[in-house]
Amino acid sequence: MDDTISSLPRPSRRAARDYRWDQVEVRPYKEDERALFKKVSRQILFSDPALSSELRYFEVEAGGFSTLERHEHMHAVMVLRGRGECLVGREVRNIELHDLVIVPPWTWHQFRAGAGEPLGFLCMVNARRDKPQLPTPADLAELRKDESVARFLGGSEEQR
Length: 160
Description:
Jelly Rolls; disordered C terminus; mainly beta; 9 strands; single chain; three-stranded antiparallel sheet; six-stranded antiparallel sheet
């Protein structure tokens, strides 16, 4: 067996109930008070210096949304629960169970759960990542030039 894997304290984690895993803490989505989001939690499923990536599970409660942001690192997302919408760049997509979403570097993105059910997804990112950038008023104005993006973002700042 590879020494790296054998040195891990728990090389596997059993699934618990309701999209939770044994010995995995449910954490707040962000500690950044500047970032607008609503009803989101995260679980870090795998994170170890031997990995080049980190696997996380996010859950957006019904009617909730992640932060509108961009950063240098890319994301690979797989929907595990529910349905909703996502913004990636200037494209708004409906997403549902088992859909895959790639978020390229420096691309504005946001995930939203539908009104009737939570949206849960796995997210794989670089283990070493940069801090997200939030949109400036000028960035928001530019994004809202596209009708579908403006509709997705809504009219109020709370909806960002």
